[in-house]
UniProtKB/TrEMBL annotation:
SUPFAM superfamilies (UniProt xref): alpha/beta-Hydrolases
InterPro entries: AB_hydrolase_1 (IPR000073), AB_hydrolase_fold (IPR029058)
AB hydrolase-1 domain sequence ranges: 3-219
Domain of life: Bacteria
Protein name in UniProt: Pimeloyl-ACP methyl ester carboxylesterase
């Protein structure tokens, strides 16, 4: 199966390299995406540009692909399910939940000169980053790509309720499946509360399992694709 891999803020498609290699060995066809504004020098990229790139990948995939979003990009994966509910076989959300209609995509941190730079590790202390050693932290920070303002502040538009019929797997890294269920039950992830087929998978990692547990993450994705 084609498995589209969409990384979260400040990351490009190369962050999936180890996961992709494992997925190939397990018989799947991984497609890591590098979206507009992720290292192509285009600080003018918008959320619409990134959505269009994701949809182009869905449309060109063989059969019905599985779409994987990490962190903020869980919303991009969900937008793909909304725009192509008949084409997307499953949506996998790694360490995040989709933003609802009418809300901004990811304006979580300070904007400077038209971009949202990586804010350093202070906001991620605790379970998010507990499994990252200093070398990995330095490597992630050094490779971090500032997010264009037009992406971070873009407004999410959801239009097709058939998205709720697309099966969803929530992969839980820095939180547990029980915590994810509690959050959904409390109304903090209203999009997921309406999903017909919703499953959870635990992974013993922080917020970036593609760095610290790539083989296990690939195993979970392969199981979901199968």
């Amino acid at each position: 199966m084609d498995v589209l891999l969409i990384a979260g803020l400040w990351l490009d498609g190369s962050v999936w390299d180890e996961v992709a290699a494992e997925l190939r060995s397990l018989g799947h066809h991984p497609v890591p995406l590098t979206l507009p504004g992720q290292g192509d020098g285009s600080a003018s990229a918008t959320l619409d540009d990134q959505v269009a790139a994701v949809l182009a990948a869905v449309d060109s995939a063989s059969g019905r692909p599985m779409v994987v979003g990490h962190s903020a990009a869980c919303t991009l994966a969900w937008l793909a399910a909304d725009a192509r509910p008949e084409k997307v076989s499953k949506t996998v959300l790694v360490g995040g939940f989709p933003t609802g209609d009418g809300k901004r995509y990811a304006d979580f941190f300070e904007l400077r000169d038209g971009v949202m730079p990586f804010p350093g590790w202070a906001p991620f202390e605790g379970p998010d980053s507990a499994d990252l050693d200093e070398e990995t932290r330095r490597a992630i920070a050094a490779a971090a790509i500032p997010v264009p303002e037009g992406v971070a502040t873009g407004v999410v538009r959801l239009t097709d309720e058939r998205r709720f019929e697309v099966p969803v797997l929530v992969v839980c890294p820095e939180f547990t499946p029980a915590q994810a269920r509690e959050l959904i039950d409390a109304g903090d992830a209203p999009e997921l509360a309406k999903v017909t087929h919703l499953d959870f998978a635990d992974i013993d990692s922080g917020h970036w399992p593609m760095h610290t547990e790539p083989a296990e993450l690939a195993r979970l994705l392969a199981a979901a694709a199968s």
